[in-house]
Amino acid sequence: MSKARVPWKAVLGGSVGNMVEWYDWFVYSSFAVYFAASFFPDGNDTAKLLNTAAIFAVGFFMRPLGGWLLGRYADRKGRKAALTLTVTLMSASALLIAIAPTYESVGYFGALVLVVARLLQGLSVGGEYAASATYLTEATPRGRRGFASSFQYVSMTAGQLVGLGLQIILQNTMTKEALSSYGWRIPFVVGALAAAVVFYLRRSLLETEAYDEEERETSRGRGTIAELLAHKKEALLVIALTMGGTVAYYTYTTYLTKYLSNTAGLAKETATLVSFSALFIFMCLQPLAGGLSDRIGRRPLLITFGIGSMVGTVPLMTALGGVQGFGGGLALSLIGLIIVTGYTSINAVVKAELFPTHVRALGVALPYAIANALFGGTAEYVALWFKDSGIESGFFWYVSGCAAVSLIVYLTMRETRDAALSRAERSTAESVPTRV
Fold first, then answer.
1. What is the mean predicted confidence (pLDDT) over 57-83?
2. In the UniProt record, does the keyword Transmembrane helix occur (predicted)?
């Protein structure tokens, strides 16, 4: 393994935006039960939640558009510029939700503000993943890229944990009436302020050497769909390798709490504690797995995930459906998340290593956003559909099937660990024998 130093400032600046992004994403869905009544007229409470959920979905389906626009922007204007823009959109969306007027004050205009905020948030999330993945990969020396890029999922998970922690604190310090009246605005104010801090941090980042080289050499074709189509094999590869990973990730993270509560019958407080504890340990595992990939390659981890998810999902989810306490739920959840770590810890770096510099951000962004919208974003709805149809185990087989498709890709794709991303790395590669 290379002894090159990890550029911690670049790692922090490149990944911390994900924490704010996923914090905002989490608090919208978790606090919707408190602010739904603020934006719609009196009536059916379920209808209000459905309206709020529909606005949430609008943000999700904006992600491919954000991936295209901001991926193109990152390839044409630079990684630093894209990272600064995404965090600006983050801060604006959180601030809009925090100050959105209620239905009682201005009618449906408040709901319109909410929609605009979610559109901005969807664009931001769609672009943040690619800008962050590309920057972390390019800014880190070869031999440490897997370790450094794993902090993308560290920060994403940290965002969910911070949001969950703040929710627990507010629920235990404020009445339900206070939360519904004004307390729900607090997490969005926190999100806007956090994004502003990240903005100033990112302004001091240096552009990557790989991008600077590309900018000096050519400006034609950078970040265009035409150029991406010239690498359609790699783009399709990103969709296929993401398919199994994103379904498994959402199954063992966002859907897990509902599954433990609705199917296993655990108290909501216990189910939440299981998820919080499992996610914390999962977060700590990411750098370990990312560093391992720098030693043994990316494919062994992906293949391990593919086999584990394909073979283990059905028995694992079946067992989780019958747990009776915190200990059993945590142990089984961790098994699932350890398997998923084989994908999450390195998926960003693998995708970035597949593409040349002039189309790298768009190549990561758009195919990933499409796969995530089709498979990750629908995972919970598919799960609930199977449950409502009386064949809940069908969802477990669905997850296994998605993993099987991705496993075929992992087995046939090339190893990317030693990909040279800059002229300096190419020179080094020519003078040092390739590792086996």
1. 88
2. yes
| pTM for the full predicted model | 0.86
| 65 has pLDDT over 80 | yes
Would you state the structure tokens that stand for residue 380, as one six-digit string? Answer: 């919970």
* Helix residue spans in 175-297 (DSSP H): 176-181, 186-203, 209-217, 225-229, 232-252, 256-262, 268-296
Helix, strand, coil tally for the chain in percent (to 5)? 80, 0, 20
Write the DSSP string, 302-352: HHHHHHHHHHHHHHHHHHHTT--SHHHHHHHHHHHHHHHHHHHTTHHHHHH
Whole-angstrom distance, CA of residue 367 vs CA of residue 298:
19
Local confidence band at 4 (pLDDT 50, 70, 90 cut-offs): low
Tell which phi-psi region holds residue 267, choosing left (phi > 0), alpha (psi between -120 and 50) or beta: beta
CB 314 within 8 A of CB 396: yes
How far apart, in whole angstroms, are the C-alpha atoms of residue 91 and residue 124? 10
Of 119, 126, 142, nearest to 82 by C-alpha is 126
Please tell me the CATH superfamily of domain 8-427, with its number: MFS general substrate transporter like domains (1.20.1250.20)
In the block, residue with structure tokens 């972390």: 136
Residue 118 has pLDDT above 90, yes or no: no
pLDDT of residue 296: 96
Binning pLDDT at 50, 70 and 90, where does residue 110 land? confident
CB 380 within 8 A of CB 255: yes
